């Protein structure tokens, strides 16, 4: 190609997954071939400030237990969202230069204000091509209640649950049909942030309060006994979708469940990539992953998480439209096992975004 593709990598954001987004962005920056791509890096602080940053992959990684973060001093401030709702724009020339000349955006944002359709709507209005699902699919997959509603209507098996709003009072009688233990989690968050395992009804109020710190809607889910299986879905530039080799997550002895620290900070899990499954089960998982992707109208990529019961029933747990891209993230690892390396995976996602938009 005579001219490099200008890619805008957007990371950080206002969600509780801010730092994991930064780590994912660092991995993507390291994979982008400078001979093919001209990269513009845009960070969003925890307060919603957009900054033009000049960082490399080494600056966006976990060091010990210290997580990277976007700070206003890191670059040129583009815009500020003020508490009263007013938007103040600074250095507009830099903003126009950064956004108008971008060929495609890779919004490696996890959680609220990044994976929930909000920033996708911004890109749609600006007519800027971007990696990943559109507004509707992003919003539906971010909201675990709507995900279950759609998947169940498509004939896929999901776990039992109760959805609770902040204004509602929940008693043991409201959830006793779920049995114990139950998991309490924000309906629209990820990376197991704000999640609690409740073994007695006396623990329920504290668990609800912890989840409500992250969202005004909370999910109380029945515990599902089974193996934790994940599968990646990838859409090519022609619109065809394909599933990766599935993987399995196994917690080390003494670890109760797959929370934030277990995922990113502690050596708490073992990963089987690929999962040790019979060939017919692999095909069933891959089929269910593609069906979930299509039912929710996803685009580009998704990671579908399952529980595999002892009777071989496949239960869909979640669909992530922008799965982690950190060095330890399952999505790129599953595709690497399936013959698509990290750099090629990023190339394919960008090509699909350019072709689709």
What does this protein structure show overall?
It is a single chain. The chain has 3 domains: 5-130, Rossmann fold (3-Layer(aba) Sandwich), CATH 3.40.50; 139-158 and 225-356, D-amino Acid Aminotransferase, Chain A, domain 1, CATH 3.30.470; 161-222, ATP-grasp fold, A domain (Dna Ligase, domain 1), CATH 3.30.1490.20. It has helices spanning 18-31, 92-100, 118-126, 135-142, 144-153, 172-175, 204-212, 260-264, 279-295, 330-337, 342-356, and strands spanning 5-12, 37-44, 50-53, 75-81, 87-89, 104-107, 161-165, 182-186, 196-198, 217-222, 227-235, 241-243, 247-251, 269-272, 301-308, 314-320. The strands form 3 sheets. A 6-stranded mixed β-sheet has the order 5-4-3-2-1-6, sandwiched between helices. Strands 11, 12, 13, 14, 15 and 16 form a 6-stranded antiparallel β-sheet that branches. Strands 7-10-8-9 form a 4-stranded antiparallel β-sheet. The chain has 11 helices and 16 strands. It is of the alpha+beta class and 357 residues long.
Keywords:
357 residues, alpha+beta, D-amino Acid Aminotransferase, Chain A, domain 1, Dna Ligase, domain 1, 3 domains, six-stranded mixed sheet, six-stranded antiparallel sheet, 11 helices, 30% helix
Q: What is the alpha-carbon Rg in Å?
A: 20 Å
The tally of beta strands, per DSSP, is 16
Number of helices: 11
Q: Given the C-alpha coordinates, what overall shape results?
A: globular
